[in-house]
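User: Continuing from earlier, I have the next pair ready.

Assistant: Great, send them over.

User: Here they are, in order.

Assistant: Folding the first of the pair now:
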Amino acid sequence: MPGELRKTLAEVVSAHAQNKRSRARFEFCLNEFVPEENTIHICFRYVAMAKAANLSRSDLDSSSGSDLSVSSRTSNRSLRVVEKERRRNEAGDPFLLSLKYFSKVEAGTPRIGNDVLERHLVQVERVGLSRGLPPEAISVMLDYAMSLRTGGKICVRVLKFLIPATVVPQEAVVQAVAWLCVSKIAISTQVLFLRWLLTVFDMIDSKDNLRAIYGFIFHFVTEENLSPYICHLLYLLTRRESVRPFRVRKLLDLQTKMGRQPFLLHLLSLYKVFCPELVTLALPSQMRSGFKNHNSMWKAALSAVQKRNNSQVSSDISLTLGVKHKTNSRKRKYHHLEVPSLSSSVQRNSPFSSSRKVFPLEQLHTFPQLLDNLHRIELPSQMGSLLGSNLSLCYLDYVQDDSAFLRLNFWLGHALHEEFLFCSSRDGGSGSSSEALHLLNRLLSTQHFLQEGFSSTEGFLYKFLNVWDGSLLRPQILGLLSDIPVVPSSCINQLLFEPLVQLFFTSTLFFKCSVIDCLNNMLLKWLTWHSVYALEDGLDISLHSHTPMNMSLSGFMDSVVELVRFVGRLAAVGLQLEGCHSLLLSFILDFYETVCDMFLKYGLPLVVMPPVGVFYPALFATDPVSVDRLGYIMYRYKNNLISAKCQQKETKQAFHISRQTYREFNHYLSFMVSCLWNSKMFLPGMAIEVDQELLSLSKVAKPWTSFDLIHHPAFLGYALDFHHKCWPERKEVDLNSIKAGKQWDWYLEFLFSQGFQGLQQFVQSSITRRSVAGTNDQGQGDRQPTNS
């Protein structure tokens, strides 16, 4: 091919072939084709046609049918359509145009009189407050605001409507934190940004890079106005590797200058959990909330946006949101009570995750997976999400990480206080109360799984009992109450007994039964904890739960005595108020079945007898089940007292059962034997004496036999049935004939065969029965009841 012609073709091709592939294809044609005239004519004709039709690069490509397939041409056409549609949407959507404007606005742009700026700002503000901003919009607007391109007032305005619709990009937050070092940002604006950051903290998609700049954030802790918010943020970001000696020293110096501020104490307490050897400061076991809620500005907007969008991203709004009213009464509705969804704090595809080979919690589905990845599991950013996964609770119980329990208590404390403590039953509808029911049921199942309660739940209950009406979520509240750990005897009356007394005496029968059952379960759990720790540590036990309280054996026994005596007072008065109702009496006897076995079953050297207001109503009950259970309780009391006395003589341990306890037991025992067996009732010298003139007015024949095993109202029906079976031909009923000869032994066998095992054990252990052959069993009483 001649050189001039070749040069001309190259210029034409360069001018009309806009695509690199098109130019390469023409260069291939020029280099490889033989210099024949036909070929030259074809090349000129091709260029002329392209030049005349002004074809685009896509058309030039399509003219080479040998190089592109039909499917490729269809794909290119689809891409062009999508691109045109996107450009058309951008051109027609004012929100996207506004975001594009703020991404390109330059520093120093005037604010006053700038109608374009105001129009775009109003557009983004309207979207943010109505349906929330997407992650891309959060990034653009946050960078625009913190860079102060149009002044500080615009920054404050933007932060107020910066409501995320789903998640907040981590990189946007990191970039915004970097702007804090710019001295021209006002302190009030920095405070507002930190408040916003704490509000949306749980909506940040990942925390890896934030933790990477932990030292940079810690630098601001010395700023007096920023310190409360910086400490709160550091509390949420702290891990074991974050605790360093120089940081501990800095916090201690700040405490010396500022005093024992709650936010400093809470951050130091977390440091002490991770590294107790670094924090030697003695911290109080009970501290008031160290981090206040400063988020009334965003609460209503966030709630409205999430409800409108039905967001799938669960955020712990109750952790950080709370409106503080100074004049109006504080009431709460059940907002955002859903348990957060389980998600790892490390992004699945992040470099940090791949380098450490972290196993995300949301992928944990089976117990073998838990065992295989036990040392690679990362705790979630929202500790409340652990309540929704039994496998995660298994992991939490295994690792015994104090920091994890501390974070979980922090979440629970805020959720329960903010959403329940100041609410009334009129504040929430049926849908919201179902959310509250679900949360409390989940909390109950978690505590039962871990076999211990949370300290935050305990603190909430002590306050809630003072405002509780006894009906709102009663089963759940009483269930949580039964899980609280041992309360010191010095404060148990004020914290627990006084609120319960007011509710108990003004409530229905069923509430009284529920309270007695709750206190019985509480005592059972206290005794179980004691038996476990007593086996581990001997008699000097410590309650090694995740609460800051330690207690000696003597302190534990004092608390148990206070609880048992309190229930005794409730039971005695409750039986009087309810007319010795059999249902209430059944729950009371359940409690004393636990009390009578405290020494033999749980190893606690303590015996507490029931009050007379419980013993006599149970003995004179009209249902045989109550009398039978009382017999079993007395049988177990006797075994416990005998064992305690024998063990005290053998081991000479430093505990003893008081003589008053033995006197009370002997008094009850002798009265039961005289009443049920010897038919000696209402006689001089007995525990219950009735004037003879009053007995004569009752016109009851032989009233002293009215409560033996034959004439007792609880067993009268069985005696009549036995009499009819023994003497079916008799028309007149003579129950005293049962006491003669072998009929008495037969009657006892008949009575015990009806399932009264407790009564049988009481009779066999406490009453002497001489057989016909003259053999006798050790006990107390006569051969048979007196036939008077």
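And the other member of the pair:
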Amino acid sequence: MYPSTLPAEADPSTMNGSVAEPPDFQAATAAAAAAARASSLEQDEWSVGECGFLDPDVQRTMRSGSAAEDITQYPMHGWVDVTKEFHDACAELQPGELAQDMLFGLFEAMSAIEIMDPKMDVGMGFDKQDLPPPSFEAAIATGAIKLDDLTPSELIGIYDALFSCLVSWLEGNSMDQVLFTCLYLHAPAQIKDKALRVFCTAVRNLIVVIKKIIAVAAVNEEEDFQLYGNSALLAAEKAQPATVYSSLKDVEDELIRKCKKLTSTEDWMAVVHRLRFMRHLFQVIYHVEQMASNDTVDDKVDIYKILLVASEMLPGIRNTLDRGTQPEKGSDAPNPMGFSPRIHDRSQPPAFPRSIKIRDRPSSYQFLEEMISRFKYACKVTKYKDYYSALNFFIEYSKKSGQCILSRSVLQTLFSANMRMAHGKLPMKQFLRHSVQVFNSPPVLNAKHPVAADPKVQQHLENFFRYCINMNTFTQFIRICGFNRARQRDKLARLIENFDTIQVDAARLDSMMNQLANERAMEGNEPMATALKHSTHFSTWVLYNCFRAMLIFLMSGFELELYAVHEFLYIYWYPYEFLIGFLVSALTRTENILLAQEEYAEHQSKTQSGGSGAAKNRKAAKPKKNKKTQRPYRAEIVFYHALLSLCGGMYKAMGALTKDGRVRLPLSKFDNEEIRYNRRFLPFATLTSPPPVSYAEFKNVREHMMRHSVEDLYTYAAKHFDQARNVLESIQNPDQEMLDLLQIARTNFVVMNVLARGHQKEVKRQPEFDFSKHSYFPIIKLK
């Protein structure tokens, strides 16, 4: 602790007041105490403005009657060196020991700015001789920027720099530190050059439109995008996005007419191409924003055509990047004229991330090209009219969209800007009702079936779907797929818990239907009784979606690198023993239900045809040749069989590697496997179907497996990989994911056979698990 007695040269009588010091003065306040003693001896040396710890209201009161300080001058501080006192205080702390003061605890320490760190301390970028960054008015007065008669090279340079700033903003940087470093964006109305004024106005309006799309979609997190910035900069001029398209078109036409009078038009046409690209990009994004705000859906084929035109212009724009002014070497400004990178440094919060690197121009246009491709792919969501196909599309899109928050938000808007509506016009309750009908076709949802007219049946169905909407479980599942991959896992954990109540309600509905079937059978209404005995349509549909959420949650841990190698054993064991089998069972049951309904419909048709005696009906009842049987989920079932074999192979391989001593295990005194197991499967603990699997059950299964020899376990793992290889090779027209899984299965099959023969038996090195080919299944590499 800091000594309780004062040094001889520091007389307590010179201090303000006579407060006795406590016997144990905390080490963390020693430096502050030394600074306070020094300041008391030189009270007249510092000004009020340098007392940064004073409340602003107090400072204003103390300044009353005196002239305000000149804020344009570089601040002068009367620093006091407390290095020696600070090191003396720190020397009294043991390694790992922290000092805490009543006003400075762990929270303040984590929020503090690291002095002398360029990434945190904004003052590190300035010298005392530096002039303050120029404002828009100051830049005009000094001639640093031009407002009229800009050359094509200058226009191209500013346009390209603004596109780079826009991309940097979409990547999660602050709007103030990237976009509004462009001085032209502060007051576009004062720009006399029409081409530059209209472009800067379009960028300002684009900022407003993009912020609204992302806010309405609500799939962003703080690490994805910063919605809020200096709103005063945007409020300086009222946004009028409806007029931007026509303004860009007018300027574009004027420049084209100008080019017809010139002999050399390459530079001006490069300007035109950038204006045209901005016009098409703005038109698409503004149309999406209108869909989000007005709940109206126009023909989205127009959006796709506009995106095609925009994508066709990007190669030509990239070929003319060298025609514009280029950034100066060693400068942070994306363009020599019109940008002031540090203009907002002193207006940011104290703990704001300071180090901002604006993208270079080639990679920015590459980002825009990929973003437009994602927009075009997102337009395909309008083709999927049921929940099963829409969810598949969202899961696939999530894997391809990367970290682009705007692409994910556009997809959410195209599908459902309002959580109560699907595709902008279909109520979500009707959408879910249609989805169940498409998934396994319950007769009670068929409007032409006699059972659909039963008011009691319709009341039960209405209650079930209203409950699904109120719980928001199914709509939230689709919305979760719009978040970034790391946040999806956290939100899926909470979503899985909500499935349990819907499962109970679906099982209750199925039970009521079966009860009604028995009542109708007793009344002699056999057709209606047969229709109501529908083999748990609703429970199967709910369970299938629950199993999918569980599988995505569990396997995403590999993609996010959350699991240690020694945990792979029970992570792969759970889908191998339970999850994938449940999914295959649900889909197989659904196919069997569809087949049974098809056979029943054919039987009814034959019965009606035979009873009529008409030749026309007999001809219609004749069975068709080569009639295709309803097996809509056969491809997915086959794929899940391949995943089942891969999980089984990894489970047996990890068991063999662990028993062989090739997997590093944590020290027993620092480890509790049961706690880790329960934590990994915690979201599943509240479910009644499937029932949670305790650690004791897993331990019994593992002990039973470990009774086999290491060579046998390697052989069993090889057989699983071989089964996966055979299944994947049987799939016609495989996609890239299936081809990658096929390569993984082949490679691991060879590795397991090599280890089963005793290769490197004396060398107990942990193999490398390479996840570069697939996020969930690694290639096992021997070192």
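Worth noting for the second one:
The beta strands are 421-422, 426-427, 768-770, 779-781. DSSP finds 28 helices and four strands in the chain.
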